[in-house]
Recover the amino acids of this structure.
């Protein structure tokens, strides 16, 4: 079973860009991964193909890796800076495209400020661990 890897975020929102940083690191290693700037792009991508979504989540401490489900995201009282939240995009994709096996790798961040560039030290340090976890999940999905 193949697993598509999607990273979500915005570089101009500081730590919110961590999903994109993970995608860039994976791509540099020759691992296919797709960067998405907005949750609405998930609707097209969640087409039944088993998927691993890498995204920033508001949690403590910054840099902690969290393996989440859609139910976990829905329980988190978070305000999205996007027009559509991640849970809303996933639910819409399920309605339009059918269910997609989905794993979510969250990287904890503090709420981003209005305009920031670059990742904070704690979140930047977590990118390597996130890449390693993605690699492990890719290997285990190919064994299945």
């Amino acid at each position: 079973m193949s697993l598509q890897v999607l990273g979500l975020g915005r570089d101009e929102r500081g730590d919110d860009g961590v999903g994109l940083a993970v995608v860039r690191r994976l791509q540099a290693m020759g691992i296919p991964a797709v960067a998405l700037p907005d949750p609405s792009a998930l609707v097209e991508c969640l087409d039944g193909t088993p998927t691993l979504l890498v995204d920033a989540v508001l949690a403590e401490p910054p840099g902690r890796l969290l393996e989440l489900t859609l139910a976990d995201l829905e329980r988190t009282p978070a305000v999205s800076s996007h027009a559509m939240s991640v849970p809303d995009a996933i639910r819409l994709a399920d309605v339009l495209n059918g269910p997609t096996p989905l794993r979510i790798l969250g990287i904890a961040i503090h709420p981003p400020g209005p305009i920031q560039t670059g990742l904070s030290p704690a979140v930047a340090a977590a990118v390597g661990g996130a890449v390693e976890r993605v690699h492990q999940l890719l290997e285990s999905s190919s064994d299945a």
Q: What stands out?
A: The CA atoms of residues 20 and 86 lie 15 Å apart. Helices lie at 18-28, 42-45, 70-75, 86-97, 121-143. Strands lie at 4-8, 34-36, 51-58, 65-68, 102-109.
